[in-house]
Design a protein that fits this description.
There is one protein chain. The protein has a six-stranded mixed sheet with strand order 2-1-6-5-4-3. It is built from three helices and six strands. It is of the alpha+beta class. It is globular, with a radius of gyration of 18 Å. The chain is about 35% helix and about 45% strand. The protein has a single domain, classed as Nuclear Transport Factor 2, Chain: A, CATH 3.10.450. The longest helix has about 35 residues, at about 5-35. A hairpin with a 2-residue loop joins β5 (about 110-125) and β6. About 15% of the residues are buried.
Length: about 140
């Protein structure tokens, strides 16, 4: 019996680690899909990722809902976007935070403008699906 207990513990630790890696990769993929939906104005992808109660704080401090974000996406002209880095922390088996840095080029009034930002998004697993429930975006100085 004493030999069986360490084996059982090792099994549960390994399966927990596998589950965590799977969740981290799932959140990173959702982040990728969300970010790369901007140049395509792909509101369907964003709507799939966003929880209905999502709240995003924009670089200007505006509180935006899922509806606000989806309405604004079609008005934006993102030329290109690139994720420089993304780090995921799981706070529990149902809550994860991603912190990422990106570079982008937007077109505004016919002029292409490069930019950088960093953001944190909070994901919650609901009914087995990860959904974005909160986000905060900070615009970085270009240097």
């Amino acid at each position: 019996m004493k030999k069986l207990i360490p084996g059982i513990l090792l099994f549960f630790m390994a399966s927990s680690c596998f589950s965590q890696n799977k969740d981290i990769e799932a959140i990173k993929q959702l982040n990728h899909d969300w970010i790369y939906a901007y140049p395509k104005n792909d509101t369907a992808t964003m709507a799939r990722i966003f929880a209905d109660d999502l709240v995003l704080v924009s670089p200007g401090g505006a509180k935006m809902t899922k509806r606000n974000i989806l309405e604004n996406v079609v008005k934006q002209h993102t030329i290109s976007i690139q994720i420089d880095s993304a780090e995921v922390r799981l706070l529990s088996q149902d809550v994860g935070i991603i912190t990422a840095w990106i570079r982008f080029v937007i077109k505004d009034n016919g002029k292409e403008t490069p930019g950088r930002n960093c953001y944190q998004d909070v994901y919650v697993k609901r009914k087995g699906r990860w959904l974005a429930v909160a986000a905060h975006v900070t615009l970085l100085n270009m240097k």
